[in-house]
Specification:
A four-stranded antiparallel sheet has the order 1-2-3-4, with no helix packed on it. It is of the alpha+beta class. The chain is built from one helix and four strands. The protein has one domain. The protein is elongated, with a radius of gyration of 16 Å. About 35% of the residues lie in helices and about 15% in strands.
């Protein structure tokens, strides 16, 4: 088993966090507090409820399907 260099792991983690932060800014700008919308991570949309499974709160958003929760 090979071990990765710590610098490679740090840069990969930083790049992933920057990408996630950019996606989150788009989600936050597009939706208002209390609104249900389609989760950008799992893209789940119920057949009964066309609004989506994620909800925007005051300080975070949560997807009730995949369980992702992100603070703003």
């Amino acid at each position: 088993m090979q071990h990765l260099n710590l610098n490679i792991l740090k840069t990969a983690r930083a790049e992933k966090l920057q990408k996630l932060e950019a996606e989150m800014k788009q989600v936050i700008m597009a939706h208002s507090k209390g609104e249900l919308f389609v989760c950008p991570f799992c893209n789940y949309q119920s057949k009964k409820n066309s609004k989506g499974s994620a909800k925007m709160f005051d300080d975070a958003f949560k997807c009730f399907n995949c369980g992702i929760w992100r603070a703003i």
